[in-house]
Amino acid sequence: MKIIRSIKEMSNFSQMMHIKGKTIGFVPTMGALHEGHLTLIRQVHKENDIVVVSIFVNPIQFGPKWLWLKEAKPRSSGLEDYRRYPRNLKLDAQLCEKAGADVIFCPEAQQMYPGSYKTYVNVSDLSDCLCGKFRPGHFKGVATVATKLFNIVNPDIAYFGQKDAQQAIIVKKTVGDLNIPVQIKVMPTIREKDGLAMSSRNAYLNKEERQDATVLYQALILAKNLIREGNINASDIIRKMRQLINKKKRAQIQYILIVDLKDLKPVDKIRDKVLVALSVWIGKTRLIDNIIT
What we know:
- By secondary structure, the chain is an alpha/beta fold.
- The chain folds into two domains: 2-187, 3-Layer(aba) Sandwich (Rossmann fold), CATH 3.40.50.620; 200-286, Pantoate-beta-alanine ligase, C-terminal domain (Pantoate--beta-alanine Ligase, Chain: A,domain 2).
- It has eleven helices and nine strands.
- The strands form two sheets. Strands 1-4-3-2-5-6 form a six-stranded parallel β-sheet, sandwiched between helices. Strands 7-8-9 form a three-stranded antiparallel β-sheet.
- Mean pLDDT is 93; it is low at 65-77.
């Protein structure tokens, strides 16, 4: 397995692989890899000749300050969150190699965003709702770095997890609107045995918080069951989800929304498949999760 730090070297490697007729599958990450990432890497290995994983903590998706709902207390600035994001390239590299990666691309921030950098990609509307409402500029950073990585790595297929549903939808829109020749493949959320979605943020939870965190998935399953039973009233479903989550004293709801899968706009009545999404503070850790039902 190769570790490539240079943009030019990564581009040259991908070009050579394509000349040889090899397909490239790509998993963009910020490191702190867990089983969710590794499942994606193994899937790429099954479906492509070459597996590239990027490990890059993208500074521009951490806004200078986050905005919160009135019921939530400010926890940290985006800068602090960026600095404390877990980094362990040695361990991540070992996990990547074991899962079947051929290349890790890990550029420095100064290389990706030199002092003269002025260009950003913003997907309007889709970036301003759900998590975007509380993290201004976050998805502009996501769309920008995804575009840059696709241009550098030049993959045939890029793989994302369903847990970050808004991110995947925005990346798909970016690729379509800008005619970037890459297929976006979204894989199911990988969960712990108790249902908690795997996330690097889970490491911040203490024992009691970890137990309370399972209420996110419980609330999503409640919504799924209510819809299956014929309840099409979104506000009623959300109310019942709130009641369940509020039973956990360490949980503080940031948002619960039921939205259209294409434009992410809230629905009043559920007539077709929808995205049920939530963001909840468990202690000092913000967790997100969702289901499509």
